[in-house]
């Protein structure tokens, strides 16, 4: 890959998604572009870059962002957040006289849905008869198709306790052998929407008791992180929480949240 091609792709991806691909990502970018060359039947990177400059490239631009984003995720990833939900965030909501027995959560950058369904399992176990909804959003259309299908390979559920799998997943038969689908009662409470975190507001423009925004900020530069945290803060109920990935920290950016525990921040009651 020529320097000019890497720079072009890098700035295009940044402009569209704010994912910042540093020089250390060059090999990764090259490998992922190989997939797009095959999919578009273009022979060289030069042809591909030229195509991206054409007016017909809108769909390809989306596919490019898709292939550049890392969708790795799994059920109950970073379990401390789910323990905190059970042990602190939900009991606090229960104790609030004005809670209206409502507890909405936004899984921002939800990827293929494992995070959103893990939250749903937790809420179903803790507050089954409350009104709650999980909204999952991601920039990638492709990954959201997977999230909505809610169907996962056996590997994805194999580390979950057997009773959790029995209770919350349907085992596939015939052509679906080796797959597990999240049960309907959970799927009914989870919806997925395409959203670029740096541009739009969450679908219902709502306030959330908790926002999970994990393992996505790591791809953004500092000004982008700052802008994103300010945007997310406006969507947290006063006293509600923002969970970030454990490899992410808000230490170097300015924000209005209180640090509660590593990777857990709270919007002040009067903030
Ligand atoms: C590594 S996954 C994290 C999934 C989940 N939150 C977790 O922690 O397991 C990162 C996700 O962020 C999404 N993403 C990247 N840039 C985004 C943006 N600007 N807006 C919304 N989602 C974005 C990617 O498509 C990907 O699915």
Strand and helix layout:
Elements: H1 3-17, H2 26-40, H3 45-52, H4 58-68, H5 79-95, E1 105-108, H6 114-126, E2 134-138, H7 141-149, E3 151-153, H8 154-157, H9 162-168, E4 169-171, E5 179-182, H10 184-187, E6 190-194, E7 208-213, H11 222-233, E8 236-244, E9 258-261, E10 264-266
Parallel strand pairs: 1-2, 1-7, 2-6, 7-8
Antiparallel strand pairs: 3-5, 4-5, 8-10, 9-10
The structure holds S-adenosylmethionine.
* Count of β-strands: 10
Structural class estimated from helices and strands: alpha/beta
Poorly predicted ranges: none
Stated plainly, the CATH topology of the largest domain is called Rossmann fold
Q: pLDDT average, as an integer?
A: 93
CATH architecture of the largest domain: 3-Layer(aba) Sandwich
If you had to describe this structure to a student in words, what would you say it looks like?
The protein is built from eleven helices and ten strands. It is an alpha/beta fold. The chain folds into two domains: 3-68, Chemotaxis Receptor Methyltransferase Cher, domain 1 (Orthogonal Bundle); 79-266, Vaccinia Virus protein VP39 (Rossmann fold), CATH 3.40.50.150. The strands form two sheets. The protein has a seven-stranded mixed β-sheet, covered by helices on one side. The chain has a three-stranded antiparallel β-sheet with strand order 3-5-4. α6 (114-126) links the parallel β1 and β2 (134-138). S-adenosylmethionine (SAM) binds at residues 17-19, 69-73, 77, 109, 111, 115, 138-140, 143, 196-198, 214-216, 245. S-adenosylmethionine (SAM) binds next to loops.
């Amino acid at each position: 890959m020529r320097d000019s091609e890497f720079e072009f792709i890098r700035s295009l991806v940044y402009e569209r998604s704010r994912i910042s691909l540093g020089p250390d990502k060059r090999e990764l970018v090259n490998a992922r572009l190989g997939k797009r060359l095959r999919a578009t039947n273009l022979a060289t990177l030069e042809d591909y870059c030229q195509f991206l400059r054409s007016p017909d490239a809108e769909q390809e631009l989306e596919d490019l962002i898709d292939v550049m984003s890392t969708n790795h995720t799994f059920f109950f990833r970073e379990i401390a957040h789910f323990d905190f939900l059970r042990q602190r965030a939900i009991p606090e909501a229960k104790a609030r006289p004005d809670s209206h027995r409502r507890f909405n959560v936004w899984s921002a950058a939800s990827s293929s849905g494992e995070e959103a369904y893990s939250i749903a399992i937790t809420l179903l176990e803790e507050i089954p008869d409350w009104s709650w909804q999980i909204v999952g959003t991601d920039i990638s259309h492709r990954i959201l198709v997977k999230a909505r299908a809610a169907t996962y390979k056996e590997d994805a559920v194999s580390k979950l306790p057997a009773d959790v799998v029995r209770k919350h997943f349907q085992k596939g038969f015939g052509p679906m052998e080796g797959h597990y689908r999240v049960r309907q009662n959970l799927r009914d409470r989870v919806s997925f929407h395409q959203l670029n975190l740096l541009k739009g507001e969450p679908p219902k423009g709502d306030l959330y008791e908790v926002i999970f925004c994990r393992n996505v900020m790591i791809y953004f530069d500092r000004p982008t992180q700052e802008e994103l945290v300010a945007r997310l803060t406006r969507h947290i109920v006063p006293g509600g929480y923002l969970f970030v990935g454990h490899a992410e920290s808000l230490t170097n950016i300015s924000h209005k949240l209180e640090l509660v525990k590593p990777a857990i921040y709270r919007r002040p009651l009067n903030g």
